[in-house]
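Structural prep section.
Before we set up the soaks we want a predicted structure of the protein with zinc ion in place, mainly to decide which crystallisation condition to try first. Input record follows.
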Amino acid sequence: MKILAIDTSCDETSIAISENDRILSNQLSSQIESHKEWGGVVPSLAKRKHIEMFDLVLSMALKQAKVKLEDIDFFAVTAGPGLAIALEVGITKAKELALKYNKPLDAVNHMEGHLYSAFARNQSGRFYSKNDPTEITFPAIVLLVSGGHTEIVFMKNHGEYGIIGETLDDAIGETFDKVGRMLGLGYPAGSVIEKLAEKGNENAYQLPIPMRNSGDLNMSYSGLKTAAMKLINEELGSLNEYGAKFEASLQTSHSLSRSRQNKISNTKATKPNTRQITLDICASFQKNAIDQIIIKLEKAIKINPEIKDIILGGGVAQNKYLRKKLRNNFPKHKLYYPQNKKLYTDNAGMIAIAAYYNILRKNYLCDPKQISALDRMPNWRVDTI
Ligand code: KG4
Ligand code: ZN
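Run finished without errors. Recording the tokens verbatim:
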């Protein structure tokens, strides 16, 4: 079966086509450049950009997959969680397509999409995950770490989820971005902080892990953010020289991620001390942000000793320091995550795979009246699917 999936939940307009769980195309138009100067996503701007880019991204996805709209068997769209007015663009287009071609429509939960990125195969049928996800033993634990969410999910089986731990305030990715902003590292800052942290001393500064002893599996990032902010102000002032220079260098870059990597190694602060302090703050912050997750995962597995497998998803799951700690601290558990950069951050490929598993369970909308009535669900939790 051919599935066409759409995700416009935040700042990427993405459309993918899959043949069952094989991703044939996964196109996206990123709006990061447009939102960068605001230091975060501006919803009205996101909506306008989604509308502007939709048709182009659709034709690129069809072209790459070498299929026509007439060949599509199922349409799928992210219905939530996400920015309401951004979600609406994708939902409206998906409804139009499903009704026009008289095909079923699957409303997919965006976090379920992040989870299912570990289940994707490439065009030639190879799994992107090193470990074969069809061999996962349920129940499994899923760690979903993104710009908007930090959740530990108990996955009883396909489509059956319970959130057993989550952040009570800021999400981990959002915290990386805010601390990065304070350091003048541009937006989004997660991967930049990771790179800088590699050269820093993670024990240079003592920052808190607010919920370490809370007794439950919940997390909190606002205390860590505030402590990091205070530290940055004390050590560097609000926008440090190293970061300001780095941010200025970004203004001229086109290909953001690659040029960022180069600029990091090329930028030299005039005061070497400032540079080292920045690296040490990045390392100390990253250590605590990730240790909180590791502590809570250890607790989750202690409570559920039958768990053998851990699935990883979301933008922050790209973080190599996190993955290393997971491998070191859970040597007996099998980890599942895709070996493909594009499948971590928001993309419609993961939505197509989640839709595939929904379709196998016959969980989709067929009746044109139900399709027309589908509405955005900005706060849709993965445990209420
Ligand atoms: O999953 P995603 O694309 O967006 C949401 O659905 O929210 O994740 C984006 C987030 C951003 O906050 C970004 O800074 C963070 O993922 N991120 C990282 C890394 N790469 C991306 N955080 C830490 N380390 C990374 N290497
Ligand atoms: Zn996401």
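Observations: Strands lie at 2-7, 12-19, 22-30, 74-80, 105-109, 140-145, 150-157, 160-166, 309-313, 334-336.
Flagged for discussion at group meeting.
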